[in-house]
Amino acid sequence: MDKTVATAAEAVTVVEPGMTIASGGFGLCGIPSVLLAALADRGADDLTVISNNCGVEDIGNSLLLQNGQIRRLIASYVGENKELERQYLTGEVEIVLTPQGTLAEQLRAGGAGVAAFYTRTGVGTVVADGGLPIRHGPLGEVVLTSDPKPTATFDWDGGPTTFVLERALRADVSLVRAWKGDRHGNLVFRKAARNFNPLCAMAGGYTIAEVEHLVEPGEIDPDQVHLPGIHVQCVLPLTAQQAADKHIERRTVRPRTPTGQEA
Length: 263
Fold this sequence. Notes:
Blueprint: H1 8-11, E1 20-23, H2 33-42, E2 47-50, H3 61-66, E3 70-75, H4 82-89, E4 94-97, H5 100-112, E5 116-119, H6 126-129, E6 133-136, E7 142-145, E8 151-156, E9 159-167, E10 171-182, E11 187-188, H7 197-203, E12 204-215, E13 234-237, H8 240-244
Parallel strand pairs: 1-2, 1-10, 2-3, 3-4, 10-12, 12-13
Antiparallel strand pairs: 5-9, 6-7, 8-9, 10-11
Helix pairs in contact: 5-7
């Protein structure tokens, strides 16, 4: 039952070229930065990455992008990363742009054994009708677009309403970060860093969790567990330095106001 490993390099040996990887986090909050750096060092390529976004230069998923390891990105936000823009517009990487709530539910459904679901999000747009650019050619021309998705009409809010069918997402390997975890893989996430992490973990056939604070089984109150260990196959305890090494996408500050003066 002890699922811990000593190093990140050991943890990511399960990742092979061509796999689908789900990566937790939102922006740079709660990203499995240590595991992603180890995966970049491992060099497994031709990856499909499912994540809210692709990180920023030299941090998070962007390490894989800069290495040329990502073939397709399934994401809901593609800003903040000029290299992603360049690779997308020159055909080096495919992007399946997905509404954020839909992406979250696709991962949750994948973990819950629900093959597909209907949602109103995207109805009447290229999300449902097809034609969303997925891949460009070397000159910027669109060479692959999304297909139309099935729709259905249901009686909703007192009248007929159109919904679009979205398929669940599953990953070969999921990488997540937790604030606290035990050796059995039971995890607790801290505040906003929970974000996509539990959903990615659920959707993974093999989930690796890096944890800032490792505790012994029984030390986490069962009522406080955010993700049960059944969804986690490998636990990487972080060092104090690794746990403290966190980033923000964009720092915005204002001059300090002297005490007693209005801003």
